[in-house]
Structures are given as structure tokens and as C-alpha cells.
């Protein structure tokens, strides 16, 4: 018996290495499925906001499902004729328990940076792949234009002098510095308190910084043809998107999700009710399409709450039609490339996946009977049996290239996919539970979801802490945070990383120093 246990222990690392090799060396998290208590069934990347964490605590439908009444010994199976009718109905709708192997989508592109940066490249060089000088010069022009018109309307400001390009870079540097200091008030730099920084404070006076902050604009005025609520920041978002597209080619596997932006779980658990109400003032939802092998954010989509009516964000945030619209917007440039997109329950739907398949986009998504649009799916696969099956057991129905999987691991987890063959098997390896068999799609989902969760845990700590009141400015600084994170990812993939191995915090410090024009000093360790 001991020999058998030893063999199993020796075999587990080999299986894990094989799984990693299949999915770009991604580590499979131990708490993705059923290992961390009652909340472990949640889908960590579906919803990262504080308001929706509680409502999405369990994507497993095991608890909320109502199983049929227990049968006594010798009693006939209840609803046997109904079950037969249900199977006939499902067969009529095209769903079958007969499984067919299918090859994975072909992908011949090579992901990664499109430009080879020299070993001497600085943090500023990587950042300016996305925010070049021409974008900064436009901010200078628009800020000065806004200051002029503002003073014509409300009176002259004798302390104002037109901002210059070096000052604009310094202004950005001051605000970006809050991503490493984690202090929400930029003005703390000039204070004598814990967050003060004398070397940074000497570059620009606090009064000058506050003047630039008062008049800062990306687009000073609305044109007569503009109706979009984000017109003041949309040109910057478009420029940023162009930079992302030209600087990086994503891998085949990608994830659609809401990244952590300002709802720090520790903050939410410890903040006062007044602070929590203040955080809920954010009037937009930020979604991204993200490369699951590197963490590089490929595309940003901002859904703005433009009112409290039925089409506002508050009314639609849990409705499939909003999330389908978000998914279509994020994937509008992905058609014909055979990408595999992983989605959370609110996006996963048969209609959307079939629409994407016609465009050459393949999907693998987690299903929830409460959050997903289950139209067209077989009802028998959405209900749980009275007696839970053994861990690792699963059932599958297939319709064309689409597979609906119900897999059990301390709860029923359902997946919809057209990217993975239903007959191929995978394995989830747990430290405590050992090997849990599963369909290949489940293993893939766990691996890529785990990587994105680790990205959120690591890089969300370096989002800019400055919290302006204006919505367009909030969107702007979140977008700048994403640009800095993407710049660091490219830096780590370049030869420059082998010259000076900066951590993410050191990279941020280095970028701030270069934006402020300080002399070349190594960041603090």
C-alpha cells in the first residue's frame, strides 16, 4: 500500500508538468474549485467589485439547486417518463450524449512584443510605447486652451502660466507615484508626514501642481458632433488602444473580465460605512480582454452610467444583455484569428458563443443558472441530482461543436465550450486531495483563470491611488495604470530586464524619476 502511495506521489509532479506544458506553463491554483471553504465555488475573475462579490460567491449551483425528493428503497425512479420526454426534447433541440472528438482551433501566430527594445531601454521608453510625446503635447495644448477659456469666463488667474511639456510629464509622474506609495492624496508629497518625498517635491511646487491639476484636460471642449459621455478622455483611450495593438501580439488564450481597480478587499473589509459609500460613487464599469499567458491587457472597454434609467449601469449590471454587449465590443478586433476566449457566468451563453464561432472566435465559459443566459441549453444539465456524485465525475451533452459539461467537485460546475474536445481528459492536482479527473476544458479553464487571478492579486496593488471626483479623470488614471502595467510586462520580456532586474515597484519608481527629469539613480530596494 505504501508503495502504491509513493508511486502516486511520484506520478503527480509528472502529471502537473504535463498540464503546465499544455497550457503555457501556467500554475493551476489550489483554490479555484472547492478547496477554500464555502466561498471557493466562486469565479474569481467574473466580478471583482465589492458589490458583486457577495452575489457571486458561489458559481457552483450545488447549494441553490433544489434536488428532487429522496426515494425510499424499492420505489420506482420518479419522473422516469418525464426524463425520457426530456431526453427526446433535448435530442430534438440538437443535444446528444454521443460525443465526438474535434481538433482544437489552429493557431499559428507567435505571441509577444512586436518590437525588440535595446538592453539600454529605460522605463520611460516602455511607457512611451503607449503614451508618446505627441499625446503628451496634446494634453499640454488642451490644458492651456481650457485654462484660457476658463479665465475668460470666470475671471483672470494671475498665478497661472501656460504649462510646458516637461511640466506635464512631471505632473503625470507625481500622480503615478501614488501607485507605489499607495497614498490617495498626491499633495502628501509636499507634506511633512509619512508620505512626504523631498526629492520629488523639489521638482515642482505644490501650488504649481495644484494649478495644473485644476486645469488639466485631454479634450478641452465638446464638439458639436460629440454625444459620447466620455468625450473628454476617448481620444486618449483610442491612442492607448492603438499603442497596445502595435506593441504586442497576444497568445491564443485570452480572458474577458473586470479587473480589480479600486475595490481592495482588505480596504472593503476594514473601511467605515462612509468610506464604502464614497467608493460606490464610481459611475462606470471597466472591462478588459487580457492575454492569459502574460497578463498583458489587450483591450479596454468602459461602460458609462449615463443615468438612473433602465439602460443605466445600475439597472443592467447583472443582466446578460449588458455583458454580451461588453463581450462583442472587446472582441470586435479578434475575428478570424482562432482565439480562445475564457468568460465568466454573466457572459457565457449559447447564442453569444455560436455568434463568435461564426467569426472565428472560440470560447470556454463557466455557467451559472442565476447569472447566465441559459436559453437553448438542455434543462436536465442545469439541475442537480438528489445524491451528489463522486468528485471528478461529469456528464456531457454535445450539439454540433458545442459541449455542455457538468463536473462535480464539492459542488456542480457547468461549462460551455467549443474550443476543447469533450472526449479528451485532463486532471486538476490538489495538494490535499491529490488528482481529480476532469474534462480537458475544465483543466484549461482552471489554469487560465488562476493566472488572471494572480495578475489581479499582484498588479492591482500598483493602480494609481489618486481618486478624482470627475468620471473622465477616474477613467483616465485607471487607463494610465493599465499602460504602466503593460509597459512593465514588455520590460520583463525584453533584454533590458536582464540588465537591471527591476521589480514592479522599482519600475514604477524609476518611471516617476524619469518623468520628473531627476538624475539617473537606482530605485530603492
Description:
By secondary structure, this protein is an alpha+beta fold. It has a domain at 117-223 and 501-516. It contains 19 helices and twelve strands. The chain has helices at 2-22, 50-53, 80-92, 123-127, 133-154, 165-176, 178-181, 198-201, 206-215, 234-247, 265-270, 273-279, 313-316, 320-330, 350-358, 440-459, 471-492, 496-499, 504-515; strands spanning 112-113, 248-249, 253-257, 284-291, 297-304, 339-343, 361-367, 394-399, 402-408, 412-417, 425-430, 434-439. α10 (234-247) runs parallel beside α17. The longest helix has 22 residues, at 133-154. It is elongated, with a radius of gyration of 26 Å. It starts with a helix and ends in a 10-residue tail after the last helix. The model is unreliable at 22-59, 62-82, 308-317 and 521-525 (pLDDT under 50).
Q: Measure the end-to-end span.
A: 51 Å
Number of helical regions: 19
Look at the structure and give the mean pLDDT.
Answer: 78
Largest sheet, spatial ordering of strands: 5-4-3-6-7-10-9-8
Describe the biggest sheet? 8 strands, mixed
Annotation, overall tally of beta strands: 12
Q: What proportion of the residues is helical, as a percent range?
A: 25-40%
Indicate the low-confidence ranges by residue numbers.
22-59, 62-82, 308-317, 521-525
**What is the molecular shape?**
elongated
What does the radius of gyration come to? 26 Å
Name the beta content range. 5-15%
Structural class call reads: alpha+beta
